[in-house]
Amino acid sequence: MSNYPRSPALKSKKPPRIFTRSALREFSATGVVVFVVVLSITLVTQVIRLLDQAASGTIPVEGVAALLGFRALSYLAPLLGGTGFVAILLSLSRAYRDSEMVIWFSSGLSLTAWVRPVLMFSLPIAFVVALLSLFLSPWAIAKSEELRQILNTRDDASIVSPGTFQESRRADRVFFVESVSRDKQQVENIFVQSMEKDTVAVMVARTGRVETAQNGDRFLVMTNGARFDGPPGSAEYKIMHFDRYAVRIQQAEARPASPSTKSRPTAELLANRTPENLAELGRRLGQPISAVLLALLAIPLAQVNPRAGRSLNLVMAILIYMIYTNTLNVAQVWVAFQRIDPAIGLWGVHGAMLVFIAAFFYRRLSVFSLGRFRA
Description:
The structure is a single chain. By secondary structure, this protein is an alpha+beta fold. It folds into two domains: 11-152 and 259-374, no CATH class; 156-248, no CATH class. The chain has ten helices and six strands; from the N terminus they run αααααββββββααααα. The protein has helices at 8-11, 17-55, 62-97, 100-106, 115-152, 266-271, 275-301, 312-336, 342-364, 370-374; strands at 166-167, 173-180, 186-196, 199-212, 218-230, 238-248. Helix 3 runs antiparallel to helix 5, helix 5 (115-152) packs antiparallel against helix 7 and helix 7 (275-301) packs antiparallel against helix 8. The chain is elongated and about 95 Å long.
């Protein structure tokens, strides 16, 4: 027997502070990188979609930034939950590949000792995810829907985009302007085609201006232009030159739209417990729960088998993540359609995931295996 004292790490099952601090630093650094990358990809995708809608005249260019901000806030909760999972998985996988886990295990610590630093990293993330999913995301979605409703009530003059052909809301006119002034009141080189019974009227003018009458009606007053009237496909048409010609701008009808389930406040969901509201409430409560469960799953999932390749655990992680999230979505739909009990829809999938994580830990620790279970 050796007379040398044993290392304190061999006597305690808790990881030393130096291990915990090092793990938290690496989790945080990797998480910041992953979050920035994922958020950038999401924002670029949304910017492309919004700019496409702005180019087609569906939304004004001024509304792109506001809609992008609201969408970013609504996506933060799932992005943060996935970021914590990926950060822990990448950090522990790197520790396996660089043989740092050998030092961890040789110091007398088991795989379960990673639970403490992982929870220290994931619980604050889950708290932020809970705040986002329960309060901030519904507010952002509600504001986005409100802004969409305001944009949908704009008149035809507001949807005109310079250099593109725009169709009126009633689909009976087509507008084209070459340029618009900064105050959006003066336009140049105007083309307007309208359907009037069985004839087509085409108007062209050099300049135009939006004017408001005393009764509140708005008109596009064109100057120095011409109008061509005639049946489609016929050579018989009339030409009329004008110095001033006014076209009434059609006003869009304001139709009050009921807010979607995702935009309703959490207090309203609790007060009015319909199946749809319970399904949405389960989705919001499930996001912070899934953030913690996925963080715990990353501990046994990060083990790298050199014979199987380094990317096998990443492929397996993506597969498990997709199955888990899709099962949650299916459970939410079933709760909304009253096919399963809301308690089962909320806790059933998470409970099954917790059992799977426990079995995965036992498998990695060689305490539980499929062969022993069959025996």
